[in-house]
Write a structure and sequence with these properties.
It is a single chain. With 170 residues, this protein is mainly α. It has a domain of 116 residues. The chain is built from 7 helices and no strands. The longest helix is centred in the last third of the chain and has 49 residues. The protein starts with 13 loop residues before the first helix and ends in a 6-residue tail after the last helix.
Length: 170
Amino acid sequence: MEEPEPAGAAEPPPALRSLLPPREFLCSRKGQLLLAESVLSFITFICYIASLAASFMMAPLLEFMLALFLFFAYASKLNEKFKGLYWPLSDFLRCVTAAIIYFAISIAAVSKYNDGASKAAGVFGFIATIVFAIDFYITFNDLVTFLKQGSSDSPERRKSEDEDSDSDSD
């Protein structure tokens, strides 16, 4: 006879479990950075909606949606399934542009507007700038490592391809 499981130890239904990211990804550095970027972008978006600087709300909204997409794309390993898109480079460009845009609109929100929501949006924007800068620094280091590894393999690969070719063009 099977023993009933305690109520607290029940696993979520399979449909809900498929929507949740794996625990390994949530504990990884990339998962935590993407989660922090999503949360900070959403908070900044809400602050801009409630402020006089509502014209700046589109940048945090787009960054929230992009960070959320990449969070679920990396969690579901879409980067391994779709090899046509160079994921680290696109992630690096997203982080660089986000850091620059957040820095610019945060300076404008803090210096130009006097309401509390604009100041809060500016402060969260500065924090988001730091998180995006950390992410693009780490992504840049991974990108450089990958490019160095790829460039060291390519001369050997070209040499073996030249030896294997059987052309009599002389």
